[in-house]
Amino acid sequence: MRFRAKIVDIGCLNQFTRVINTVAKLAKTCTLRLTVDKLYFILSDKVANGGVSMWCELKQENFFDEFQMEGVAAENNEIYLEVTPENLSRALKTAQNAKAVKIKLTNKQCPCLTVAVELPSLSSSSRIVTHDIPVGVIPRKLWNDFIEPNVPEFDVSIFLPVMKTMKSVVERMKNLSNSIVIEANKNGEMNLKIETDLVCVTTHFKELGNPPWVLVSEEGSQNSTQDRDTESMVEARIDIKRLLQLLAGQQVNPTKALCNIVSKKMICLILLHEDFSLQYFIPALA
């Protein structure tokens, strides 16, 4: 089992750092899945049991100048590691002006991701700062616990407003309640609501747009979500801190951000970028 990778391009390094920083805000520990083509950061708490889940997918060719790996066996050419993303984030903070960053799976009394940061120097030789980040190797028999989450058929999908604006609104609402209701319809309208015994506050967003998803029925006929009732609202009440974790923690400036709502069951927030995608599942409160 081997893994080594190298980033030279400073733009790729900065973007990779932003992704890691975002993941670190969402999960204290998570699973890093390595394949030949992609990296995945996975948080697989069971949504049905009240936990959040995360699925972050990166194409390695968009970030790494060199990427080599050998899995546990030829037929299972993958590696699953338990990592603390905050430790990886801290290591990458020393690499802001790096000439190159190498990441390697090593064994130093325990399995480690060794991050070697090559920094510029006034002399002819470079300075190397090395970080050994302990990781846990997840055995093959447990890999099925880390498959991509199944998303129930959602009732509404809507593009999010500007995330900085949404963050500002939710931060103010956090002082009033521990929960928030997100409701939306197929007419591009979304509301954020706080409801307590003392106060009811609602922020309205309009003309956000709905992604052109197409649903396929059991009979095989295709029906656009736009053919259904567009005015009626679908809602889910969630923990406001969970929502704020993503809004306050994301540093990746997605090209698209959207929200899928399963009525009274869960919401799925999706950040899309040409280099990666991130799905964040928050269960509804009873």
From TrEMBL:
<comment type="similarity">
    <text>Belongs to the HUS1 family.</text>
</comment>
<dbReference type="InterPro" id="IPR016580">
    <property type="entry name" value="HUS1"/>
</dbReference>
<dbReference type="GO" id="GO:0031573">
    <property type="term" value="P:mitotic intra-S DNA damage checkpoint signaling"/>
</dbReference>
<dbReference type="GO" id="GO:0005829">
    <property type="term" value="C:cytosol"/>
</dbReference>
<dbReference type="GO" id="GO:0009314">
    <property type="term" value="P:response to radiation"/>
</dbReference>
<dbReference type="GO" id="GO:0005730">
    <property type="term" value="C:nucleolus"/>
</dbReference>
<dbReference type="GO" id="GO:0000723">
    <property type="term" value="P:telomere maintenance"/>
</dbReference>
<dbReference type="GO" id="GO:0030896">
    <property type="term" value="C:checkpoint clamp complex"/>
</dbReference>
<dbReference type="Pfam" id="PF04005">
    <property type="entry name" value="Hus1"/>
</dbReference>
<keyword id="KW-0539">Nucleus</keyword>
<dbReference type="GO" id="GO:0000724">
    <property type="term" value="P:double-strand break repair via homologous recombination"/>
</dbReference>
<dbReference type="GO" id="GO:0044778">
    <property type="term" value="P:meiotic DNA integrity checkpoint signaling"/>
</dbReference>
<dbReference type="GO" id="GO:0035861">
    <property type="term" value="C:site of double-strand break"/>
</dbReference>
<dbReference type="GO" id="GO:0033314">
    <property type="term" value="P:mitotic DNA replication checkpoint signaling"/>
</dbReference>
<dbReference type="GO" id="GO:0006289">
    <property type="term" value="P:nucleotide-excision repair"/>
</dbReference>
<dbReference type="InterPro" id="IPR007150">
    <property type="entry name" value="HUS1/Mec3"/>
</dbReference>
<protein>
    <recommendedName>
        <fullName>Checkpoint protein</fullName>
    </recommendedName>
</protein>
<dbReference type="InterPro" id="IPR046938">
    <property type="entry name" value="DNA_clamp_sf"/>
</dbReference>
